[in-house]
Each structure stands twice: as C-alpha cells, then as structure tokens.
Amino acid sequence: MQYELLIAGRHLYGKRRRGFISAIAFISVLGVVIGVAALIVVVGVMTGFIDNYQKIILNTNAHVYLFTYYHNGISKSDSLVAELEKKSEVVEATKFVYSEAIVSNKKLIEAIVVRGVDTERQSRANDLAGKLISGKADFSLIQVGENKFPPLFLGKIIAENIKADVGSIVKLAFPQGKSRAGLAGMTVRKFVVAGILDLGMYEYNSSIVYLTLPDAQDFFDMDDRVTGIEIWVRDIFNANIVSYQIRYELGMPYRTSDWIGLNSGLFAALKFQRWILGIILTLIILVAAFNLVSALIMIVIEKRREIGLLKSMGASNSSILTIFITEGTLIGLVGTSIGALIGVGILALVGRYQIIDLPIEIYQFERIPVTLHSGSLYLIIGFALLISFSATIYPAWRASRLMPVESIRYE
User: Fold this and answer.
1) Which helix H or strand E contains 323, and what residues bound it?
2) Residue (of 322, 320, 334) closest to 292 by Cα position
C-alpha cells in the first residue's frame, strides 16, 4: 500500500504534471470545496432559524393549553390546576386570561392582546424579570400622585408605537365590557407602565401586553373565571401526546392545543426549505464528482504507459485500482476539508458579526441566526467523502483493466 500511495501523490502533485490535467484536478477540488462550504452554511442558517423560533416560542408560550368550548371561560380552575399537576408528565400548570383589547397613550392607539398571568405563585408564565429591558417586575399597585394604578407590562414595539415609557399612564379599552365612564359600550381603565419587555420576536413585542390575573379578570369582567390553563411538560416533543391524554381524560367541554400543532405550519415550511436547499446544493457536490471522474479519466489516459510499465513489473490489477482510488479520495478529502473549514468559518463570522440586516417585520430577527449541530457537520462531510470515493471507482476500474502490451505499444 505504501508505493500505491506514493505514486498517487506523485500523479497529483508531481513536478512534471501537465498543466491541463492539473487544471482539471484543481477544478475538481474547487467544486467539492464550494459544494461542501455552501451546504454547511445553508444547513447552519436554516437550523439556526428553526432553533431560534423554537426557543422564542417556548420561552413565551406554554407547551400545552387547556381551554373550554364555553365562551365564558373555565370556572373552578384551581381544582383543575391541582389535578393537572398530579400527572407525572406535567411539570407545571397555571391559570391565564387572554383577550384582545386596545391600548392608547397621547392619542396614539394600538390593537393588542392582553395576557393576564397568575403572579400569586412562582411560575414560568409570570417570569417577566428576565424579559425586562426597563422597569421592574413589581405587580403591586403603583402610586402616581394621589392615585394608585395597577401595573402593566408592554412589548417594546408597542411602547415605541404609542410613545410610552416606564411610569407612563396608559388606557386599556375593551368592547362589550362593564358600563363604566368612558367610551360608549367599552370598558376603559387606566394602568401604569411598570416595565417594557423584549419577548424575542417582533410579533410578540408588537402585540402582547401583560397584566396580573386579578386585574385582567376584573378588566374583562370574568369574575373568578379564566380563559385557560397553561401547562408545561417534561419532554417538549411529547407535548402533543400529553395534550391528547389530557383532552381524553377530561372530556367535554374541554379542549387542548399544544405548541407543536400551533406552530406546525411554520416549522414544516422551514424544514421543507432546508431540505430543498440541501438537495439543490448537493447537486453542486455531484457536479464536482463528475469533474473528479473527468480528471481521473484524463490522468488514466496520460499515464497509460506508466500503467503498462507497472503491470509488466508485476503490479496487480488491485494495486492499479488502489492507486487511482487513492488519487480521487485525496482530491475529495482535500476539497471536503477546505470546504468544511470555509463553511464553519463563514458561519462563525455570521454568528459573531451582523453582516446582513434582516427586515425584522418579516423574519422576526434583526440578524441571521446560526446553529450548526455536530451531527449535521459530520453527515455533510461523510456524504461528500462518499460521493468523492464513489466517483473514483469507474476510472480506477478502467485503469486496472488496461493490458500492459496495449498500454506501451504506441509509446
């Protein structure tokens, strides 16, 4: 095997290599480099989008939601919460209120979604402190002048749109509420902005407002009823199974939904795009493999006399086969290694520096998210090496079948 490797290396890097053959070998290496680097970059970026969307969604939403078919919400929710938390699959359950409303400040108005969270118990739902960019997570009444007002927490885009800051007194309006002083047929209440939140996604920052659960129940005239119950499970990827089990056990009039089903369209689209782009970029590697076949065939033609001499000196067909398979494998190995380094380097630069600005209203992120799992990297490298190796088989077989007399007859 030692002399086969030596001969293969001299074929590719020897000083007497012909320029045309060298150019073909260089193009073959370049094709593999481009294909591997492009595939790594695309997989890293698309995986980054999927992982970041999943992280933000799970950071802001529960794994499973329990609702009722009745329009007035769930009553006796405390007993339901206690029952749900007895399940081994459930980590936590908490009550919430969820409804649309209007927020206004300085004659600026925004349509928003109000989420009332149970602040009387420590839970993931009311863990707003980590999302605050200004203010503090204080859920008690706030003194402003001679009056006290309930606290309210705004997404940062809403705060920008209505020119509100921490300490601003804003109004919430809700149609078909109690008959109070204010707009006809609407409930209007004043709140103090206790904090401004960054919820990680443009859609959330531009639509969600948080209240305490009692304030939300009073504002929407729900008495002790709630919109639903948020449930967190031990294995997030079994949320759909837990959701079905809860719905089956509780029966009518309860219904459930889970984060997988609620966002299935988004993740399916992203995964489909990743597969399509992966297939397209794999074609680049296949084109490089055809270039590799061409390069090896040209080397075989150029080295016909040398092959004949080696065979006449006792080299076996398997030795000739090994020489040319080694040549092609070396080309694939060099191209794959350089391409992997370039691809990982590009992802590192994109992840560290904001090279491209994304329209946040469309993509929900200001910069390109990057995540490259080691399994994906090894799969791409292994696939590129497999294609490179496969491309060597036919030219190497042709070289091994050359007859010594035919190889040197016209030399």
Assistant:
1) helix 317-352
2) 334
Residue 180: pLDDT band (50, 70, 90) is: very low
- The span from the CA of 111 to the CA of 133, in Å, is 22
Per-residue CA distances from 380 to 38, 90, 349, 367 (Å): 11, 38, 20, 25
Q: What share of the chain is helix, strand, coil (3-state, %, to 5)?
A: 55, 20, 25
Pairwise CA distance, residues 199 & 53, whole Å:
12
Is-above-0.85 flag for pTM?
Answer: no
Q: 258 phi and psi, to 5 degrees?
A: -130, 165
Residue type, 76: K
Q: Which residues, at least 6 apart from 348, have a Cβ–Cβ distance to it below 8 Å?
A: none
Reported as a single tens digit per residue, the pLDDT across 124-142 is 666 788 888 888 888 888 8
Q: Name which residue leads in pLDDT, 315 or 223.
A: 223
DSSP class of 226: B
SS3 141: coil
Q: Report the mean per-residue pLDDT for the chain.
A: 79
Helix (H, G, I), strand (E, B) or coil at 10: helix
Q: How far apart are CA 305 and CA 309, in angstroms?
A: 6
pLDDT digits (tens, 9 = 90+) for 216-226: 988 888 888 89
**Which residues make Cβ contacts (< 8 Å) with residue 93, sequence separation at least 6?**
66, 80, 81, 84, 85, 229, 230, 231, 232
| Nearest-10 crossing angle of helices 317-352, 304-312 | 130
Q: Compute how many other C-beta atoms are within 10 angstroms of the C-beta atom of residue 363.
A: 16
Pick the residue with more confidence: 178 or 153? 153
Those residues with Cβ within 8 angstroms of residue 76's Cβ, 6 or more apart along the chain or in another chain: none
Residue 332 CB-half CA count within 13 A: 29
Contact 158, 205 (CB under 8 A): yes
Phi, psi angle pair for 401, to nearest 5°: -90, -5
| C-alpha span between 49 and 270 (Å, rounded) | 8
Nearest of 44, 45, 87 to residue 66 by alpha carbon: 87
pLDDT band at 192 (very low <50, low <70, confident <90, very high): very high
